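During the first year of the project, the team set up a workflow for recording each protein of interest as an amino acid sequence followed immediately by a discrete structure-token representation. This format lets reviewers and collaborators read both layers of information side by side without switching files. As required by the reporting guidelines, we include two representative entries from the current panel. The first entry is reproduced here exactly as it appears in our internal archive.
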Amino acid sequence: MALELKQNLKLTQQLVMTPQLQQAIKLLQLSRLELIETINQELEANPLLEEATTADLEKNTRGDEQGQEDWADSEAVPGLAATEAEKTPWEKDAIKDTNWQEVWDDEYRRSLPSYSFEEKEVPNYENIVASKSDLKDHLTWQLQLSDMSEEDRKIASLIIGNLDKDGYLKATVEEIAEDSGTDVEHVERVLKKVQEFDPVGVAARDLRECLLIQIDHLGIEDPLVKELVSKHLHQVELHNYQQIAKATGRKPEDVVKAIEVIKSLEPKPGRAYSSEEVQYIVPDIYVYKVGDEYVVALNEEDLPNLRINPVYKDAAKNGDVPQDAKEFIQEKMKSALWLIKSIHQRKKTIYKVTQSIVKFQREFLDKGIAYLKPMVLKDVAEDVGMHESTISRVTSNKYVHTPQGIFELKFFFSTGLTRKDGSKDVAAQSVKERIRRLIENEDPTKPFSDKQIVEILAKDNIKIARRTVAKYRDLMGILPSSRRKRPKI
């Protein structure tokens, strides 16, 4: 078989995503913190971009009413999804010679949120926190105040250094004895002293020892409490009250009282001194009820307001700059203009998607989670005239503050369970809430089984399988009925 070379001319069509379009898609799916970080990076990298000052905002911002009208009347700009890239009109316009005066006046003005500056700005005191000592610092401080010898202090320091964040000793006494050059008995004596430090139960080697230390320190005199911790802790975890009562020869009600005492103890002594900071959720959107209507407002706080640097704008307008410098300015100007337009597009898209969600979930906003309707991405995509992938990007890592609480936008999208009479489906989240309330209000001596929950929901015209109830219960961290049962007291 002979091999030969041939030339073929083939005409094909393919979708090419430009870097600008990729940036617009990336900005759309960023969380609030990621967006702020990205903008700050662009401010450092692009000399033509700068953040507007408060004086500029006061001079150029428009009234709240006019700003809301602009948001409400603005049409959705299609094309953020990869499947709709060819519809995006921005890149073609951005490549043309830019009207610098329009960029400075119109683009900068449109980038500003509708702020009211009547109130005096004050610092956000939630961002001002006092320094907090961790568990190691707290124990070291107590060690310095103790009357231990220098040798004991050295061993105690090794013990403190080998504690985990919950306050448990992760090294064996043999290892500590080897590192300190002493015997195991000496380490055991020092360990007993460290275990008397605050918080009570610290430096224990397991949960059983931790609880026993707390029982002795609190002076709990009921011998059943110590017996349950020493010999039946696993059965206590499983809530096997009848088996515990049989093994100890005590009445079930006595066992319940002893377990209640055990529940009051702290299984993780170091938790109060955890160095992990609380991460507060800052909503991207606010939904307010004004009269009988719900109003959507974007949260623009802490977001840098971008504008074009007037110095470079004037340099680009004048012809007395070198050609290479002018080309550099024009290139950075295109990049800055595209970033500003992409941020505008992100705001408009989030606003329109939230408006659509509010329209679909009006009953939820009025009455609560039990009235959440089943909804999929396609419902909102068809309503706002965008692609489902765009809706998916918009709802990722975005949070909305509603009269019912703060929720991630993806929370409102859930499958539905069919009703027995064939009427409108009910959202899975709503069914989970009903199951949670049923279990919360049940008689602890006769908890509902999964089968009984199915029968109760059937009376409410909800068709659901027993295994689905079990799955929802597990997702909510609720134990089965056999482990929720409590003896009568």
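The second entry, processed by the same pipeline in the following quarter, appears below.
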Amino acid sequence: MNINKRVTRNTRGAKGSTLRADLHVHSTFSDGAFTPSELMEMAAELKLTALSITDHDAIGGLGEGLRKGREVGIELVPGVEISAGVGSHEVHILGYYFDPDHDELNDKLLHFQSLRLERIRRMLEQLAGLGILIDYDYVLTVAGEGAVGRPHVAKALVEYGYVGTMSEAFDKLIGDDKPGYVSRNRTSPQEAIALIHRAGGVACWAHPGLENHDEWLDGFVALGLDGLEIIHPEHSPGDEARYRAMAAHRGLLITGGSDFHGGNGAGGSLLGQFATDPADVTRLREASEIRRNTA
């Protein structure tokens, strides 16, 4: 696969190491543009050591990713990004190295996906009240096998001709507090962390700089939070330094990645552009092994 136009070998994070692991990537099983197999092939071409597919409230792509990873020689770190909430604020909790076959985890994620479907149905009803008619089944077609979300509604709005770009769809219609916005029924950070733990994984707060509520950290640590996503496209070097110090002070694990969606990732990031030191990946793995062995 020729991906020279879609990826870059310039990285931030990973302490200057030539060994890199991207632990925040999305596939077609949520709102990413590439299949798990394609992502693993791209990771191999970039000579990454590991990749974590962290789809939103979905782990259906992990089996495919694991198989392709063995074929191309890249470690697939089992991952998920669970949407939780603190009041009206959304918080994302990343889970790593859990058991993908854990029954409770799979049941809960199916429930979260059903809530996503209900939200989309309500959003389309609200848009219809504004004279903007989008077919529900068409949005599901846009989502394909992925966990349906607002990006799929935005894409449908573009394809129906109501807006020119997905950004315009969010800015005018379905972004927070916009006319077509519908709030989500989200789980709590406590339950998200506990669910990941019960499945044998480690739980990390995703891109805390986006929430801009550093005061939540100690409360999350009290709930059992294991780590912080320090390296992220939306984190400045100053953010990285601050969160690294906060993690060290509290004995937290470190993670990071590109939040790659396929050309439209956070901050326009490209696969492998923001990377985690493999030593930190080892610490995540070892922490999960300790949790499973002491459960």
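For the second entry, the following points were noted during internal review. The two ends are 42 Å apart (CA to CA). Residues 1-11 have pLDDT under 50 and may be disordered. Both points are flagged for discussion at the upcoming steering committee meeting.
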